[in-house]
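in:
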């Protein structure tokens, strides 16, 4: 019987980070604005913008902070309605509420992507902005979404927390909408424990975001943005102090050159496990959309034809063998189940999304696992399905 691998252990931080971290610890120079130039956070912003093909980047304390600052930088009116997917992490509607806006939820289908019919029905309902969550790295139809939003002059913010390295028609996810927001939390492709970054080509928008992030007085002069974009916002917008520190940047920067390898290995591992799981009549791993090249570090699949008892039995059998299966809708506190976002007034019902969440499974597949590790995970999941679906034997037979 194969042993389940440890899917919670992260890949080691590159050794090259140690020198930069040691230098910071010796100097005590941890605040991003202490140095006149070339602070680690400033270097990270320049390197990340170049990597993604964007003009500007702003490193902040989390992806949630990046989403919040994006909405504030768009200068939306109080109580503006922001359309978001019904399948996302609770941080997304929370960022909308934090920005004094109102989240409007859109249905998501069995393939974890936005249901375009519902999206079209809700986009004209006084929507001021749209957040597209590429949830767990699954890209919705960005061609259709951008056409709909551009025709109405509605700005699109991409929540690309799970999608660093994913492309759409060869273009980096996060660069399609007006703003892209990424996460450096531990279970993401680049790991700093916490942290986030936003990218855009709009100088005026990023100037507002930079000042609001905590570039007080004239610290904005240390950012490579047109200074006339800053001047008109000095003392005109509030400071939320959501900056990233130099230590986090020193941990992140050496990982950027590793991204291409991690994306390649993650895709290979995911596709290998997906092919094995799809051999079961009880499991469906939704196919990617044509223009999409994913960068996965986990796998999602739907359980087909199982009743509630069998679903519970499958989850228990997999966990007993060491593979934790998160079924998004089957807990009272899962932050990805929209009915648990009870801080939203008049929380709507989304029957399509609810039906998906009750059968959608999530299993971590860290990119550093070996082929034997992937085989172990696949075999444990397939054995658990067989155990949950085999007919009960009559006593004595």
């Amino acid at each position: 019987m194969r042993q389940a691998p440890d899917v919670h252990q992260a890949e080691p931080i590159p050794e090259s980070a140690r020198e930069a971290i040691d230098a910071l610890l010796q100097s005590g120079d941890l605040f991003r604005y202490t140095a006149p130039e070339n602070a680690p956070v400033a270097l990270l912003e320049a390197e990340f913008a170049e990597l993604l093909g964007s003009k500007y980047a702003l490193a902040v304390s989390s992806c949630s902070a990046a989403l919040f600052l994006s909405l504030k930088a768009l200068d939306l009116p109080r109580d503006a309605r922001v359309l978001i997917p019904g399948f996302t992490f609770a941080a997304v509607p929370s960022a909308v509420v934090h920005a004094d806006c109102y989240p409007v939820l859109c249905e998501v289908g069995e393939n974890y992507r936005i249901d375009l019919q519902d999206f079209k029905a809700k986009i004209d309902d006084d929507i001021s902005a749209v957040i597209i969550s590429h949830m767990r790295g699954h890209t919705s139809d960005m061609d259709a979404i951008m056409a709909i939003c551009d025709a109405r002059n509605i700005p699109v913010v991409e929540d690309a927390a799970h999608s660093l390295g994913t492309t759409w028609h060869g273009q980096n996810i996060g660069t399609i909408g007006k703003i892209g927001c990424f996460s450096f939390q531990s279970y993401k492709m680049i790991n700093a424990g916490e942290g986030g970054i936003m990218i855009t080509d709009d100088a005026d928008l990023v100037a507002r975001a930079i000042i609001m992030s905590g570039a007080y007085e004239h610290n904005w002069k240390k950012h490579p943005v047109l200074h006339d974009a800053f001047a008109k916002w000095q003392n005109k917008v509030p400071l939320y102090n959501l900056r990233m520190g130099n230590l986090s940047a020193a941990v992140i920067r050496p990982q950027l050159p590793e991204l291409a390898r991690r994306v390649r290995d993650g895709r290979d591992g995911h596709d290998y496990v997906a092919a094995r799981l799809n051999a079961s009549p009880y499991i469906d791993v939704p196919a990617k959309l044509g223009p999409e090249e994913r960068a996965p570090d986990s796998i999602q699949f739907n359980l087909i034809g199982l009743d509630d008892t069998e679903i519970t039995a499958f989850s228990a059998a997999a966990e007993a063998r060491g593979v934790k299966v998160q079924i998004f809708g089957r807990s009272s506190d899962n932050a990805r189940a929209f009915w648990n976002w009870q801080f939203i007034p008049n929380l709507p019902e989304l029957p399509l999304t609810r039906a998906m969440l009750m059968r959608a499974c999530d299993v971590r597949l860290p990119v550093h696992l070996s082929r034997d590790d992937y085989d172990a995970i696949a075999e444990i999941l397939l054995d658990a399905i067989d155990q949950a679906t085999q007919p009960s034997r009559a006593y004595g037979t």
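note: Confidence is low (pLDDT under 50) at residues 393-397.
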